[in-house]
Amino acid sequence: MPKCLKYSGGIANYEARTYPGMKRKIIVAGNWKMNVSYDEALRLTGAFGKEVSSSNNMEVVVCPPAPYIPSIVQQFEMGNQNISVGGQNCHHEQKGAYTGEVSASMLASSGAKYVIIGHSERRAQFNERNELLNKKIGTALEAGLHVIYCVGETLEERRADHTLQVIKTQVTEGIANLTSQDLEKVVIAYEPVWAIGTGETASPAQAQEVHAYIRALIATYTSAEVAAFLSILYGGSMKPANARELIAQQDVDGGLVGGASLDEHQFIAIVRSAQSFL
Ligand code: 13P
Q1: pTM for the whole thing?
Q2: Are 151 and 189 in contact (CB under 8 A)?
Q3: Is 236 left (phi over 0), alpha (psi -120 to 50) or beta?
Q4: How many helices (H) and strands (E) does the chain have?
Q5: Annotation marks residue 51 as catalytic
Q6: CATH superfamily membership of 24-275
Q7: Which pLDDT does position 22 carry in this prediction?
Q8: Which of 191, 246, 270 to mutate to test the pocket of ligand 1 (most atoms within 8 A of CB)?
Q9: Which member of 83, 122, 164, 271 lies 3.0 to 4.6 Å from 52 by CB, making a disulfide possible if both were Cys?
Q10: 77 CB-near residues (< 8 Å, 6+ apart)
Q11: Which of 196, 232, 233, 263 to mutate to test the pocket of ligand 1 (most atoms within 8 A of CB)?
Q12: pLDDT per residue over 168-219, tens digit each?
């Protein structure tokens, strides 16, 4: 089933639009977080690099710890493997006296194409707020990177029925002042915090509801065209067993995969599930 650009519903007064025959990009990105040794990293990318690659309408991305980026980029280049590499975070300033930090331009000049910004672990553990994340997105785009901007509600917020309000604030404050052209280089990842690393996944219907809402928000704040072409990924215990059903949803355009991206067999299986929608 091709993912034709057709969406309905969303926030009030949003006019549904269709773009017959057009497709938006499916992306499967692996977020390794602070895991694996250097040797294991190269073994892992060597193993799945032989099996999967990006194509016209689909992109495979791996986001390893920053020190491994140049070697992994080189490994993919030498093997002619079309897989993009991303960082997991960057500083909001371009450069300066920030001991221990990594800048967006350092990632870009090391061969990274993407950077993840606003992961819930950074929001919770490093107190990163939407305003700071907005600055980081701007700095990353200036450095020529593409951004995977993460949003998601906690369990308490979902139980209190605040999910859509939380998402609205995270999305609108995170992308504030970005132009339509900027947004062409932004991907949004919906990662419900309660589903990350817990084995508990949002149901396809729960994911679709929030994804459709995000798309409608983007349409309201920018244009229907920008919204229609925006890839929105799901993250939170995505595995081979649930990937197909999630990506089958109209507004789910791939996944941001944590734990399962550390196992080449599972990551390859998730990429294959995504490829079945091309
Ligand atoms: P898990 O797939 O391990 O739940 O992690 C998801 C995630 O945080 C990806 O960024």
Answers
A1: 0.93
A2: yes
A3: left
A4: 12, 10
A5: no
A6: Aldolase class I (3.20.20.70)
A7: 56
A8: 191
A9: 271
A10: none
A11: 196
A12: 999 999 999 999 999 999 999 999 999 999 988 999 999 999 999 999 999 9
Residue-wise pLDDT for 150-173, tens only, equals 999 999 999 999 999 999 999 999
Q: What's the 196 CA to ligand 1 centre distance in angstroms? A: 5
CA 153, CA 163: separation in Å to the nearest integer? Answer: 6
User: Phi first, then psi: what are they for 189, rounded to 5°?
Assistant: -115, 120
Ligand 1 atom closest to 198 (CA): 4
Q: Which residues pair with 234 in a beta bridge?
A: 190, 255
Ligand 1 pocket, residues with Cβ under 6 angstroms: 31, 119, 191, 196-197, 235-238, 256-260
Specify the pairing of strand 186-190 against strand 232-234. Answer: parallel
Contact (Cβ atoms closer than 8 angstroms) between residue 245 and residue 266: no
Could you tell me the CA-to-CA distances from 203 to 1, 243, 265 in Å, in that order? 20, 11, 23
Active-site residue 211, yes or no?
no
- What's the token pair of residue 138? 């701007």
- Which atom number of ligand 1 is nearest to the Cα of residue 150? 10
Ligand 1 nearest atom to the CA of residue 189, by list position: 10
- Give dist(CA 244, CA 222) in Å, integer: 30
Reference 72, options 43, 102, 104; nearest CA is 43
171's enclosing H/E stretch is helix 163-174
